[in-house]
Amino acid sequence: MRGLEKYTILGEGVQSKVVQAPRKDERYGDIAIKIEATSSEVYNLSILSPQNLTCVIKYLGSDDDKDYKAQLLYMEKADHGNLEDFLKTLEPEELNHNLCFNLMEQIIYGLLQEIHPNNILHLSVKLANIVVFDETNIKFVDFGLSCYMLLTFKREIDTPERLTNLSRIAPRRIKAFRDKAKDVMETTRNINYIKIIISPEEDIWGLYTTLYQLLFNKSFNTKEGIKLFDTLIKSRRSHLNQAIWYEKFCDGIYQYSRSKVRESFESLSEDDPLYTLKLFILGYMDTYLNTDAPIDIEQLQQDFLKLR
């Protein structure tokens, strides 16, 4: 399959790209091909595909050519692209309560009832990683950052520098880094080996910010927030006391996130047809940011279904 790069690009990320296949499939029609899929993505999709959760048709493995080692995923092509782009095609009046509820229900169900119960964490939940076949059929894609987590095993990750942008970092993760830094400074003082354990909560903040963007028609992470995040990350090297840096990093992320939720609360109007849905997601974001209470997934789903 050498030369796939010359075909129309449907989507492109940091590590891979998706192109349109040159020929239609007899069963599926137009096909998209993901080039350079990660090994973890291939493994995790092999678990999820039978659930009809993802749009993967088959995995071809690496090409025989020694100079071309891409792992290829053949996928159904979503006629309406990703959800972020699809929403931009709608008129304001089209984005009504029924449509938003239907999309939110599919997102919540897909993540909490299909992905997580299969011991998989997506780790990059956002509108751009959800594709739209029609309004009643959307699917999660791009599992390049995903990990498989058995009940007896939790993968650890190290410092925030491995995270490339604000959208992939949950405030409670930063708090975990901060607390770990304090412990390390009081014991080994080897700040270079701070690690925290990945858990399903990694995806929950992504779920919240994704639903926020769907309802408010804007990203939760503004340019100011992204600039703050980048500044905080870059300032790490200038701090001799890394525990103090982690404290400032945590405070900065929390202050920004809380201010965004507060501003959004203040902008709500009961005349807004999406008022109850917006109130729902802001309430859960506020609880997440201002308490250490565990996230009750069952309660979240029950509260949401009451808004039908």
Radius of gyration: 21 Å
The CATH topology of the largest domain corresponds to Transferase(Phosphotransferase), domain 1
What oligomeric state is this?
single chain
* N- and C-termini, Cα separation: 47 Å
Q: How much helix is in the residues?
A: 40-55%
Give the spatial strand order of the biggest sheet.
Answer: 1-2-3-5-4
Name the structural class. Answer: alpha+beta
Count of helical regions: 9
What is the makeup of the main sheet?
5 strands, antiparallel
The number of strands is 11
Q: What does the overall shape look like?
A: globular
Structurally, the number of domains stands at: 2
Q: Can you walk me through this structure?
A:
The chain is α+β, with helices and mostly antiparallel strands and 308 residues long. It has helices at residues 39-48, 83-88, 97-115, 171-186, 201-216, 223-234, 242-266, 275-290, 297-305; strands at 9-12, 17-20, 31-35, 56-62, 71-76, 120-121, 130-134, 137-140, 147-148, 156-157, 196-197. The strands form four sheets. It has a five-stranded antiparallel β-sheet with strand order 1-2-3-5-4, with helices on one face. Strands 6-9 form a two-stranded antiparallel ribbon. Strands 7-8 form a two-stranded antiparallel ribbon. A hairpin with a 4-residue loop joins strand 1 and strand 2.
